[in-house]
Amino acid sequence: MRLLRIEAEGIFLFSGKVSIDFAAEQRVYPDNTAMLFNPFGNTYTNNVLSFVGINASGKTTSLKLISFVMSLLNAEAINTIPTKVIFERSEEVLLRVYFYDEQKGVCLLETSIGVTKESGAANRYIILWEKLYTRRVSSVTSKANLFKFTDENLYKTREVSQEQYVFLKDDVSIVIALGKTGNIFCRDLTGWTDYNILTSFGNFPVELIQFLDPSIEYIQFNPNETEVVVKFKKDSGPIAMRGIKDISHYLSSGTIKGLNVFMHAWIVLIRGGYFIIDEIENHFNKEIVATLIRFFMDKRVNKSGATLIYSTHYVELLDELDRNDGIYVIRNKDGISIQKLHHILKRNDIKKSDAFQSGMLDGTTPSYEASMRLMKVLSTGIITEGDE
Question: Residue 137 contacts by C-beta under 8 Å, 6 or more apart in sequence?
Fold first, then answer.
């Protein structure tokens, strides 16, 4: 299953309707097909989606929306999906999810989600109504009609009937009618942004270890003793460690995160799934992040059309991307808005990073007035304590 577009309305945190495209909108040229995957016909999807914005602009929330949709398509119960937190303070949310299924073709899932509020209990989310549309791939003749569906394409609806109450929970999507669960393979690290813990994948490839830290000879896991063994080149013998604190005494934060991130990425690249990572630059230098991005744009490595979805403050990373239709500018003014860079920046003779850093794109740098107010306070040299 391949995501093509996500549309959402009614989410309190967002300003109006939001739309996130996975399908390529710009023209496809032979020299940039490495950034794309061709699931069918003349339809291509971007292998890298970047979400860029200043602090508190809504980048994490945008990634959580994507993660939620993937869980919904995998027929997970809404109330067990951690990223449902984005629906807080929302009364009714309408999702339109366009995707490609190898058996059914191009599909549209319309899902209306409501909330039940019980006294003294946490909010519980239910599906109010749903419609699932399907079209044969042969009916998609152009980009213009890729997302057009009619009543003739209606495949399944959610009916208030005793039969559906028996076999379908009120917080599980009818997408399960396509015949299987776990349709989308995804590794989501948005919940680990503030944590940096070494995860056991077995013994890490020496090439990865020395890419991150050339001073290390090897790292091995001893599952029977639940310990990690690290051998540094300069030491005569290995060091055995137990617990997170012991590991952090010997391995840098960048090495720990790098081992986790690149191993998850490797699995996704093999499976052809989706890899979601928030604040991709945390603990990394620019070149390590750029290397990860390049792997997803290299057909020798990304043979199955895996997709990297990330947020970042490193606007220089955008210069790694030749296309603008996989870059989203996130702003938060009376609600989060998501806008594709392709719709904002029309000129091709300007570096993307320069456009962001210069303030040419409104709302992508801290405001001048706010920085001047902060400078004025700091220049006083006085910290005013709060009332006790």
Answer: 40, 41, 100, 105, 106
Convert 191-232 into a string of H (helix), E (strand) and C (coil).
HHCCCCCCCCCCCCCHHHHHHHCCCEEEEEEECCCCEEEEEE
Name the helix (H) or strand (E) containing 277.
Answer: strand 274-277
Measure the CA–CA gap between 68 and 308, rounded to whole angstroms: 16
**Tokens describing residue 188:** 């989501």
Average pLDDT, the chain: 86
Q: In what order do the strands lie in the sheet with 239-241?
A: 216-222, 227-232, 239-241
Per-residue pLDDT tens over the stretch 234-280 = 999 998 877 656 777 888 888 888 998 999 999 999 999 999 999 99
Question: In sequence order, what are the beta bridge partners of 113?
Answer: 93, 127
d(Cα 379, Cα 115) in Å, to the nearest integer?
49
Amino acid (one-letter) located at 293: I
Domains and CATH numbers, the chain: 2-195+262-373 (3.40.50), 206-250 (no CATH)
Query: What is the tens place of the pLDDT at every residue in 125-143?
Result: 999 999 999 999 999 888 8
3-state helix, strand, coil in the chain (%, to 5): 30, 25, 40
Checking if the pLDDT of 1 tops 50, the result is yes
